[in-house]
Amino acid sequence: MLEKTIDDVHDIDDGIAENNDNNKVTPTMPLLEDITTPADFKRISREQLPRLAEQIRERIIKVVSKNGGHLASSLGAVELTLAIHHVFDLPADTLIWDVGHQAYAHKLITGRNQQFDTLRQYKGLSGFSRIKENPCDGFTVGHSSTSISAGLGICCAKYLNKDDSHVISVIGDGSMTAGLAYEGLNQAGDSKRKLIVILNDNDMSISRNVGALSSYLSRTFSAKYLQTMRNQFGAFLKSLPRIGEDMYKIAKRSEESFKTFVTPGMLFEAFNFDYFGPINGHNLDHLIDILDNIKNAADSPVLLHVTTVKGKGYAPAEKNPIYFHGVGSFVVDTGKTSTSPRKIPSYTHVFGEQMVQLGKSYPSLVAVTAAMPEGTGLKDFGSLYPDRFFDVGIAEQHAVTFSAGLAVKGIRPVVTIYSTFLQRAYDQILHDVCIDAHPVVFALDRGGIVGEDGPTHHGLFDFAYLRPLPNMTVMAPADENELARMLKTAILHDGPIALRYPRGSAEGVPVADPVLPLEIGKGKKLCDGDDLLIIAIGRGVAEALKARDTLASEGIFAAVINARFVKPLDETLLLANAGQCKKIITVEEHVLAGGFGSAVLELFMDKGLTGLCVKRIGIDDCFVEHGPQDVLRKTYKIDADAVAAAGRELYGQR
């Protein structure tokens, strides 16, 4: 179904070419259900757009209530989406959604309404924009603050290709906390290319100077005739003998002073962007008017600042936009979760509880996160110890170097960031932390397969990117008790150290009291067996134990080792057991290249062990798609069934 729709959308140019006033729909015609291509949307009249916005919100709420997803941001961007598509011609023009949290309405009006029920389901629509999914998705996204840089690259490529179509990058205000956004602004302002950046101010409240006057001035300033007059007058002033340049600078400062009085655009004007806004992002008439003006303005970078309400049109989401930013299934009438309360706490919850407990005993302990206090379980720590809690915004690079600075003066920072997002700070980990072995703790939440958010969010590379770094210690708990012990181990360790734990429910193991630290680099043999040796790390330990039980019922008996540490490995334990049992399986929820299994093989080769038969269980050389965690583990063959199958294969070899 999805592939047919994508093929149908390839013939979009002809449909867009037919767009004119004679093709506008009548008021009695259905709307959303009739949109199967962008050309269908272009035939909808401007007067019909408010009704279409209502239908889109109903559709988004209905599907997300069943599938989960990023609700509040997408609801807040409905009118903005319709205005962009009304004014610009996709896919000839290129639209990039930063992160993709706001893109559900965009999906619905670009040929994906019939497939929208599959949102975030295995083999269904992605929760983010993806080039391979639809030609109207200008860039594959998932991490924040990439839209301006990517948009500028596309803009420059179009210029080189003699393509005068438009590029529009929509970025949320939260994404403006990342340095990458300003790096993109800096080059874009210098390039003088016609890049249109739309800042969707929906939470951070960059400015409160919003009102009728500001909206009117922005629409007026953006009019083509005024822009032309402005440029011509500037050229005239510069041409005046002797005093021209000075007169131009005075006039420019006067204009900027006036705009600063009623708008907050000086920051963007400093980057050589023409700034317009703030403007109400739910007023379709105003949005369309100003986008029309910007579309036809001079060839220079433009930033339009719109203000929207997260969760717009759904009262529970408007009231609690943080909860409904990324939400599971819920009851539409009440907004309350439709799933049963979690019987076993999540790893994230256990981590948060342990941080609170450790905070009582260790006054030098601080927590650092990058715009994810709720998602990382640090909300309670931040409430109890506000002076020891630092949310640096979406700025992972800064978070790491900032933490190194804390560590220099005797503070013990715990940098709590999702595994996939810590990838953005690799150089800072290496250069600012590891070279001088600063005692910074890295708590990597969402290690392994995360589920419905897909390839941009799976934490499947952390062993490989942390393991090569000198001075770094890397560990992964098999259960919540081990998580508590590893966290205490980490804050007592005098050097860089990382613990990586998965998303979702833990194993149901009680946390011991008192919590005792582990000995660095020491694993644990969990059970004996003469036929096979299974060496597992992190969540793979539970799968290894299940596989052992299955194999034992078939008369195949495996020893199981919980390695605990990826670096340093417990050489004594692993070498002794591998020497006794030559048939070995390694298990990890991580890519095989450079991961835990690779570390074990390197150990065996370096120590001269011969005659071994080793099978590694992990993710092959591919990106894992989106879908339920259990489905993905079975599909990519890293669950207990895959371990048992590998055991049978090894056992059968003579």
Structure description:
The chain is α/β, with parallel strands linked by helices. It folds into 3 domains: 2-315, Thiamin diphosphate (ThDP)-binding fold, Pyr/PP domains (Rossmann fold, 3-Layer(aba) Sandwich); 347-500, 3-Layer(aba) Sandwich (Rossmann fold); 524-652, Rossmann fold (3-Layer(aba) Sandwich), CATH 3.40.50. It contains 27 helices and 17 strands. It has a 7-stranded mixed β-sheet, with helices on both faces. Strands 1-2-3-5-4 form a 5-stranded parallel β-sheet, with helices on both faces. Helix 6 (78-87) runs parallel beside helix 14 (284-295) and helix 23 (540-552) crosses helix 27. The radius of gyration is 28 Å and the shape is globular.
Q: How many strand segments?
A: 17
CATH class type of the largest domain: Alpha Beta
Q: Identify the overall geometry.
A: globular
Oligomer: single chain
Radius of gyration, Cα only, in angstroms?
28 Å
Task: Specify the CATH architecture of the largest domain.
Answer: 3-Layer(aba) Sandwich
> How much helix, percentage-wise, in residues?
40-55%
Q: Determine the CATH superfamily of the largest domain.
A: Thiamin diphosphate (ThDP)-binding fold, Pyr/PP domains
* Side-by-side strand order of the widest sheet: 7-6-8-9-11-10-15
Domains (count): 3
Distance between the termini: 48 Å
Uncertain spans, ≥5 residues at pLDDT below 50?
1-27, 204-211
**CATH topology-level name of the largest domain:** Rossmann fold
Share of β-strand residues: 5-15%
Strand-pairing-aware structural class: alpha/beta
